[in-house]
Amino acid sequence: MLDRYLKAGALALLRPLAHLFIRLGFGPDWLTLLGLVMNLGATVAFARGQLRWGAAVMLLAGLCDILDGQVAREGRKETKFGALLDSTTDRYSEIFLYFGIGAYLIAQNEWIASGILFFALAGSLMVSYVRARAEGLGEDCKVGFMQRPERIVALALGGLIGHNGLILALALLAVTTNYTVVERLAYIRNKLKQRADSAPAHSAP
Q1: Mean confidence (pLDDT) of the chain
Q2: Residue 144 has what pLDDT?
Q3: What distance in Å separates the CA atoms of residue 140 and residue 192, rounded to the nearest whole number?
Q4: Which of 170, 169, 167 is nearest to 119 (CA)?
Q5: What are the tens digits of pLDDT across the range 110-153?
Q6: Whole-angstrom distance, CA of residue 193 vs CA of residue 171
Q7: CA-based torsion, 118, 148, 86, 21: positive or negative
Q8: Alpha-carbon separation of residue 120 from 1, 89, 107, 177 (angstroms)
Q9: How far apart are CA 177 and CA 129, in angstroms?
Q10: Does the global pTM surpass 0.85?
């Protein structure tokens, strides 16, 4: 949803900055790593209870995540390793962010919320895992609502609201990410079944 309605606008707004990075010779991999470092800063902010600062830095890191792909495409610097690095740092960034939020919740004795965070983290990682496994089978799998841009926005909005907003965002993610996993599994199952049903039958020799 966010990819469809917001990403095109964000790309248009960030295009001058992307072209500046290209002229300066700033490679997309450096932007990817910068986003990871910024998410580490957001993790520290969350762990120290500075929720709004953590959310703001996380959103800035999200801009780096958009810019690295834009610089790679428009600067003709796309590589398979760059795509792998981007996916890997995305997973680490999410784990770090949840770790920082978890440290904050434990310090606040929010044990129930910490349990909710576990399911949100598990669902977030599994959404990406199912897509990767599906692509390994030769199937495209981008269906489902709670993809990474939506997850980042949900966490950021929760952090900007404050303690209660963050817990609400985690509860939302715990449900919707795992639902997205089931949705993707069902989608790939149906797709593979339709392909098998449409395949011509081979007569016995």
Answers
A1: 87
A2: 79
A3: 11
A4: 170
A5: 999 999 999 999 999 999 999 989 888 888 888 878 888 889 99
A6: 33
A7: negative
A8: 19, 18, 19, 7
A9: 12
A10: yes
Task: State the pLDDT confidence band at 3, using cuts at 50, 70 and 90.
Answer: low
What pLDDT is stored for residue 20 in this prediction?
A: 81
86 and 92 in contact (C-beta within 8 Å)? no
List the one residue out of 67, 61, 89, 48 whose CA is nearest residue 153: 61
Question: Cα(21)–Cα(24) distance, rounded to whole angstroms?
Answer: 5
Q: Domains along the chain?
A: 9-192 (1.20.120.1760)
Would you say 64 and 31 are in contact if contact means Cβ atoms under 8 Å apart?
Answer: yes
DSSP assignment string, the chain: -HIIIIIHHHHHHHHHHHHHHHHTT--HHHHHHHHHHHHHHHHHHHHTT-HHHHHHHHHHHHHHHHHHHHHHHHTT---HHHHHHHHHHHHHHHHHHHHHHHHHHHHTT-HHHHHHHHHHHHHHHHHHHHHHHHHHTT-----SS--HHHHHHHHHHHHHH-HHHHHHHHHHHHHHHHHHHHHHHHHHHHHHHHHHHHSPPPPP-
Residues 46-75 as b/e (b if ≥16 CB within 10 A, e otherwise) read: bbeebbebbbbbbbebbbbbbbbbbbbebb
